């Protein structure tokens, strides 16, 4: 007779198996964790296990019933709260550094991870473990990240966002771009102590991250402006409210600030990848530069689609202009103030062909979209051809060519430019290099090496738009140049403002000590001449000496300035005068 196990024995085996299965999973969990928590949806802890006594001084059974957030150090609560709030079914909470509370204060940093099982929607599962210092390191030190939040800075975000929009559209995924403006954030931030400010920035970043599409698609562009790529079903109104809540909670004066957001979805399928990157960058830059938050938001909401496509078209048109060299050059004289002799001429771009934009607008557009390198190269080639032609007629002019700070930072461009200049080595002393937009120069050491190569080979180098600010002094400290061209605002202001005149004189004196020659911009009338000579400024440029003209030979000599103010002995430059 075959024996049959009793129902009780079967149940006992079944229970034993369940226990072994449970213990196996717990053991496996502890292979990667020191503490395990299960919570209800409201984060009330329903199960606790692990080294809670060693780390917090509290037994697991005594933690049950507490809120998970209540046992986390206050400084970490806003960030962790937002990250947990963003968890969805079958989605893992990526490891994040957190401190628990203990009788002795916050614990050492722990790595917190979490998971929400679709089959158990009423429970959330969390694991914490001690980790190495390397594991605790946030990737904020990665190139292109904002050190305060770990979010991508503008250039890195634009690349990531453009790639994500392209791949999403190809995969049939609907994504949107939202720009967020925290109006007057700098004022609120100034009311916070350093720790509170750090917590607030990380909390804002968490709010954005939990709403963003997968793939690191959040950026911080400056103190007040952020952006994220997200799925179209994301509730942006709720996102604004969450950020506003944290801003108000952090404000010691309970004032808070306005949070504005604009969202757009655009078809990018027919936009070339390189153009998309530059167009998105251009649109973000315009958003950040618009001081009125309503106009900024409306602009991004209503116009990004048209901006991306219009920018792509403008870029294509500009490339055609550059490749065909179908732009003109106007010349404006730079004059030695005491003698009235023309030293050299600045070459200024002029665009025809039906363009409805000023030269300044087009050059600024090229700066902002990264096309300025192509234009600078084309201008250099055109000027070298012009100098070769005029030399053959017996007219040896000196011409200053504008070279963008952005171009100076482009290694490939510098290599190509140096090759071009070598082909015309006989013209080096006639071509002056005038560096504009110096604020765009990121690597000053590399830029100075390039400048010294130019000077050593015979070119005079000028630093344009020089001012009295700390950044100007920084450039002058790192960049050894022959000439500085002083920003026109100081020249205009010196006529009626003693303080501005003092600034002008101090700039001149500094340059004198360094053996650097000085040029004053925007010399519009004779009234300013005595001030310039009194300040020791050697050269002037402006309508008083001549308006820009397409004919370089059209300028008449200026009457010598017989002023009682004569150049100081210290103004004798270390190198020959610009026009010699």
Q: How would you explain this protein's 3D organization?
A:
The chain is an alpha/beta fold. The protein folds into 3 domains: 15-136, PAS domain (Beta-Lactamase, 2-Layer Sandwich), CATH 3.30.450; 144-315, Reverse transcriptase/Diguanylate cyclase domain (Alpha-Beta Plaits, 2-Layer Sandwich); 327-571, EAL domain (TIM Barrel, Alpha-Beta Barrel), CATH 3.20.20. It is 44% helix and 18% strand. The chain has 20 helices and 19 strands. The strands form 4 sheets. The chain has an 8-stranded mixed β-barrel with strand order 12-13-14-15-16-17-18-19, surrounded by 4 helices. It has a 5-stranded antiparallel sheet with strand order 2-1-7-6-3. The protein has a 4-stranded antiparallel sheet with strand order 9-10-8-11, sandwiched between helices. The chain is elongated. The model is unreliable at 1-8, 133-141 and 562-574 (pLDDT under 50).
Number of strands: 19
Shape: elongated
What is the beta-strand fraction?
Answer: 15-25%
Helical content stands at: 40-55%
Strand order of the largest sheet: 12-13-14-15-16-17-18-19
Low-confidence stretches: 1-8, 133-141, 562-574
Q: Say what the CATH topology of the largest domain is.
A: TIM Barrel
What's the main sheet like?
Answer: 8 strands, mixed, barrel
How many helices? The count is: 20
Separation, N- and C-terminal Cα atoms: 122 Å
Based on CA atoms alone, the radius of gyration comes out at 33 Å
Class inferred from helices and paired strands = alpha/beta
- Mean pLDDT across every amino acid position: 84
Output the CATH homologous superfamily of the largest domain: EAL domain
Total individual domains:
3
Q: From the coordinates shown, what is the CATH architecture of the largest domain?
A: Alpha-Beta Barrel
What is the CATH class of the largest domain?
Answer: Alpha Beta
């Amino acid at each position: 007779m075959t024996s049959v196990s009793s129902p009780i024995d079967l149940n006992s085996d079944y229970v034993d198996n369940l226990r072994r299965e449970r213990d196996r999973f717990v053991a496996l969990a502890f292979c990667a964790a020191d503490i395990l928590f299960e919570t209800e949806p409201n984060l009330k802890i329903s199960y606790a296990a692990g080294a809670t006594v060693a780390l917090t001084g509290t037994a697991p059974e005594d933690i049950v019933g507490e809120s998970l957030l209540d046992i986390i150090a206050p400084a970490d609560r806003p960030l962790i709260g937002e990250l947990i709030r963003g968890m969805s079914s079958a989605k893992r909470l990526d490891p994040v550094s957190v401190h628990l509370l203990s009788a002795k204060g916050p614990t050492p940093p722990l790595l917190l991870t979490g998971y929400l099982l679709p089959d158990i929607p009423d429970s959330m599962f969390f694991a914490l473990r001690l980790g190495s210092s390397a594991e605790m390191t946030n990737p904020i030190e990665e190139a292109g990240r904002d050190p305060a939040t770990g979010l991508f800075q503008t250039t890195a975000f634009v690349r990531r966002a453009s790639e994500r929009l392209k791949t999403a559209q190809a995969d049939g995924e609907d994504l949107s771009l939202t720009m967020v403006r925290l109006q007057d954030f700098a004022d609120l931030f100034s009311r916070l102590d350093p720790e509170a400010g750090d917590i607030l920035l990380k909390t804002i970043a968490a709010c954005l991250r939990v709403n963003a599409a997968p793939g690191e698609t959040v950026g911080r562009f400056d103190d007040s402006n952020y952006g994220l790529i997200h799925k179209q079903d994301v509730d942006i109104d709720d996102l604004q409210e969450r950020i506003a809540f944290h801003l108000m909670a952090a404000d010691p004066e309970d004032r808070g600030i306005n949070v504005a957001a604009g969202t757009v979805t655009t078809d990018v399928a027919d936009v070339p990848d390189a153009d998309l990157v530059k167009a998105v960058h251009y649109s973000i830059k315009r958003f950040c530069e618009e001081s009125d938050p309503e106009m900024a938001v409306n602009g991004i909401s209503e116009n990004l689609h048209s901006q991306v496509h219009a920018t792509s078209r403008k870029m294509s048109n500009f490339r055609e202009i550059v490749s065909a060299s179908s732009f003109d050059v106007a010349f404006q004289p730079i004059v030695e103030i005491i003698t009235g002799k023309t030293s050299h001429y600045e070459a200024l771009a002029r665009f025809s062909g039906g363009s409805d934009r000023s030269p300044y607008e087009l050059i600024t557009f090229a700066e902002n979209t990264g096309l300025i390198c192509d234009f600078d190269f084309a201008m250099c080639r055109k000027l070298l051809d012009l100098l070769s032609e005029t030399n053959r007629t017996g007219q040896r002019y000196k011409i200053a060519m504008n070279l963008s700070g952005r171009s100076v930072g482009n290694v490939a461009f510098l290599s190509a430019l140096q090759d071009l200049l070598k082909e015309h080595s006989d013209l080096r002393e006639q071509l002056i290099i005038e560096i504009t937009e110096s604020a765009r120069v990121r690597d000053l050491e590399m830029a100075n090496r390039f400048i010294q190569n130019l000077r050593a080979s015979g070119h005079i180098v000028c630093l344009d738009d020089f001012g009295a600010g700390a950044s100007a002094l920084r450039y002058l400290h790192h960049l050894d140049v022959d000439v500085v061209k002083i920003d026109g605002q100081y020249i205009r202001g010196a006529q009626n403002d003693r303080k501005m005149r003092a600034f002008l004189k101090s700039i001149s004196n500094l340059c004198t000590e360094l053996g650097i020659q000085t040029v004053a911009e925007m010399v519009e009338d004779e009234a300013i001449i005595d001030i310039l000579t009194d300040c020791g400024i050697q050269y002037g440029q402006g309508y008083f000496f001549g308006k820009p003209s397409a004919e370089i030979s059209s300028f008449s000599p200026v009457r010598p300035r017989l002023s009682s103010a004569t150049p100081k002995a210290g103004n004798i430059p270390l190198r020959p005068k610009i026009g010699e």
